[in-house]
Write a structure and sequence with these properties.
Helices cover 68% and strands 1% of the residues. The protein is mainly α. Strands 1-2 form a two-stranded antiparallel ribbon.
């Protein structure tokens, strides 16, 4: 229950902020209705373009928060429009009078309208996406709108004013990263610090484009009016289209790797689902150890194809259990597997992990250590009978003196413990 408290608290904050803002706006009326309508349409269109959340049956789990708790910024146009409206102080040279409540109300109404198709499809964690949007915009509006309405910003103009907006947006991005990491941590129970680090590392990408576009939109609308909205929306639309195509290519490539990994299962060398289970558990252990998103991707691909070298064997190893083979034979299979991986175009890093999974663990890269431990656990738990996870884990701990990296074994224990298994403390 403790791990769910941040999730409940953030959802409650967003719900209270949205409800109070809507109530205040309904009571006081909408200021500058054409401006509110234009920004509302822009935000709704941006939310409609939220990509589909798909996970193919039998395929590997996608890595990262982007595919687990939700996209980092899946609707950049909606985000830029929301931030721009929160920053808006003038329209075509005339001061605007909408306040915090109206900003939040327009964003909530437009985001909900744009999210209806996604809710209807039962698509992914759309609610978390809306919570992030409401809290980020609420923070920006609270910082900006009272100052605008009291004339505090009148003393600044030109570059100073633009820099002030960008500084405010930087704080907004930091707050949004904290919220996103907290939501992901609550839903997945992955360690908070690596999640926050990955969120912050994504900021120089699409996050910076969203912030810059939001600030420029607000400045342009203040001078030329609402015509600035379609003009500055086009670059983000093109960027979003390119990102979706890139994501589709990556998803297709991942499925290709997963299909190749199933060759050993189809040929009868390994049990059905073995590669997928090793990949999923390896990623969980990698997250616990603080691996970055690129490192997790390499780990996923290597874990999926760690047994591909068994295709060179004349007689399959019973149940594909290579952990019990002589070290020389394990290394031969690993080297053959790495040679196959190099031919697939999966990358030299992936091939290196596959090649070195049978080396002494002090000489292995971290990903190879993880694959070795998780693969051994998967093989041992299959044969351990009742109490399999506990028995397999104890066998791994007994092997930390020479075969398995102790820090990886304990990370595996923590991951299994979070999956509600009762495990003995490491020592």
């Amino acid at each position: 229950m403790t791990s769910r408290r941040p999730l409940i608290a953030l959802h409650a904050c967003a719900a209270v902020l949205g409800t109070v803002s809507l109530a205040v706006t309904l009571r006081t009326g909408v200021e500058e209705r054409p401006v509110a309508l234009a920004f509302g349409v822009l935000i709704a269109v941006g939310e409609l373009s939220l990509p589909h959340s798909r996970r193919s049956s039998g395929g590997p789990p996608a890595s990262g928060p982007a595919c687990g708790p939700g996209p980092r910024e899946a609707a950049p146009l909606g985000a830029a429009g929301s931030l721009s409206y929160a920053l808006l102080g003038e329209h075509a040279g005339h001061a605007t009078h909408h306040g915090v409540a109206q900003v939040v109300s327009v964003v909530v109404a437009a985001s909900l309208l744009g999210s209806v198709p996604h809710f209807a499809r039962g698509q992914g964690p759309v609610l978390d996406h809306l919570v992030r949007r409401v809290l980020a915009v609420g923070f920006t509006a609270v910082c900006c709108q009272p100052l605008y309405n009291h004339g505090v910003f009148d003393r600044w103009s030109g570059p100073t004013y633009a820099l002030l907006l960008l500084a405010l947006l930087a704080l907004t991005v930091l707050c949004d990263a904290l919220v996103a990491a907290a939501l992901a941590h609550s839903r997945t129970r992955w360690p908070f610090a690596p999640l926050l680090r990955d969120e912050l590392r994504s900021v120089p990408g699409i996050g910076s484009a969203v912030c810059a576009t939001g600030a420029v939109m607000a400045l342009a609308v203040a001078v030329v009016g609402l015509w600035a909205l379609p003009v500055f929306s086009v670059p983000l639309l093109l960027t979003q289209h390119s990102l979706r195509r890139y994501a589709a290519v990556r998803a297709t490539y991942r499925q290709t790797i997963a299909s190749l990994a199933r060759a050993t299962e189809i040929a009868g060398y390994t049990p059905a689902g073995h590669a997928r289970r090793v990949a999923a558990l390896s990623q969980a252990v990698g997250r616990d150890l603080g691996l970055t998103e690129p490192e997790l991707t390499v780990l996923e691909y290597a874990a999926l194809m760690h047994d591909i070298g068994q295709l060179s064997l004349v007689d399959p190893v019973p149940a594909g259990a290579t952990a019990g083979l002589p070290v020389a034979e394990q290394r031969r299979i690993a080297l053959l597997g790495g040679a196959v991986v190099r031919q697939t175009g999966a990358g030299a890093q992936v091939a290196t992990v596959v090649e070195r999974q049978a080396d002494p663990y002090p000489e292995q890269p971290v990903a190879a250590r993880i694959v070795r431990v998780v693969n051994a656990y998967e093989e041992k738990v299959r044969d351990a009978g009742p109490g399999g996870p506990l028995t397999a884990l104890e066998q791994l701990r007994l092997g930390t003196g020479g075969d398995y990296a102790p820090e990886v074994v304990e990370a595996l224990a923590r991951v299994l413990s979070r999956d509600c298994l009762t495990l003995p403390a490491g020592g």
